[in-house]
Amino acid sequence: MGSSLGLALRKREVPVRIHVYARRAETREAALNLGIADEVFSDPSEAVRRADLIVFCVPVLTISELAKACRAGLKPGAVLTDVGSTKEELNRLMIAALEGTGAEFIGSHPICGSEQQGIEAGDADLYAGAMTVVTPPMLADEVSVRKVSNLWKSAGSHVTLMEASQHDRILAATSHLPHVIAAALALSAGDNGLFCGSGFRDTTRIADGSPQVWSDIVRTNAPALKAALKNFRENLDELSALVDEGDGEKLANWFAAARDKRKELLS
């Protein structure tokens, strides 16, 4: 996500200077070689020194810890954001992490991405046409919110504002549930790889995502995800009852309703 953002800003010739922090020297070198960064740093507090806008592209539960490591370099008025898939718990953690710094956290979540990992997987068009949700906390500075929103617009995104709790409820059903279902499907296929066709590959593709990223997502959005799982289980129970009944017309109607709902959601 981070390399894609850097490449997107470069492609669109956005007038910003990009400083990159990464733990591994190989990653820092790649950021320079790929043209993503103007400068690279092994110390997060040095990477953010004098920065107006800081974007965290790490697993959700790592963000607040990395923010603490940045404290010495944060200037008053700096705005911090992220690309994480959950927001309500992160908001609470960031309030504590930034206390006394004069910096402000405005969460954001670009609803795009892929299962591919690593800086080399960056895509300059990843954010083009995508929806990015910005989740300002109560009493957030309007100028800070505009800075974060304009960042994603500059990368090609459409932006919408939403409360963190609402974001987490919606994404539990539309993003987090599909991922855990894909993972469960992969675990349910047994040793039948020879017979896994395109349907299996398409449906389970996202199960290739980072285990750490998805562990953090589940841990920070457990109540909403459990509610989504309950709803999914009820739909499976309905299908199971129809299978037992063996009525072809009712089964066809069930699949037709699912097809129509998908078209409605994606229209």
Overall description:
54% of the residues lie in helices and 11% in strands. With 267 residues, the protein is mostly helical. The protein folds into 2 domains: 161 residues, Rossmann fold, CATH 3.40.50.720; 100 residues, 6-phosphogluconate dehydrogenase C-terminal fold (Orthogonal Bundle). It has a 3-stranded parallel β-sheet, with helices on both faces. The longest helix is centred in the middle third of the chain and has 25 residues. It is elongated and about 65 Å long. The two termini are 26 Å apart.
Write the layout of secondary structure elements.
Blueprint lengths: L1 H10 L7 E3 L3 H9 L5 E3 L2 H4 L5 E4 L3 H11 L8 E4 L5 H11 L5 E2 L1 E5 L19 E5 L6 H13 L3 E4 L2 H25 L9 H7 L6 H10 L1 H24 L2 H19 L1
Parallel strand pairs: 1-2, 3-4, 4-5, 7-8
Antiparallel strand pairs: 6-7
Helix pairs in contact: 4-5, 7-10
Quick structural overview:
The protein has eleven helices and eight strands.
Contiguous low-pLDDT stretches (5 residues minimum) are: none
Can you write the helix and strand succession as a string?
HEHEHEHEHEEEHEHHHHH
Helix content range of the residues, please? 40-55%
Which architecture of the largest domain per CATH? Answer: 3-Layer(aba) Sandwich
Give the strand order, joined by hyphens, for the main sheet: 3-4-5
Reported for the largest beta sheet, the result is: 3 strands, parallel
Q: What is the CATH topology classification name of the largest domain?
A: Rossmann fold
Q: How many domains in all?
A: 2
Mean pLDDT across all amino acids = 96
The top level CATH class name of the largest domain: Alpha Beta
How many E strands?
A: 8
CATH superfamily grouping of the largest domain: NAD(P)-binding Rossmann-like Domain
Put simply, the count of helices is 11
Shape: elongated
Strand content: 5-15%
Distance between the termini: 26 Å
The Rg value, from CA coordinates, equals 21 Å
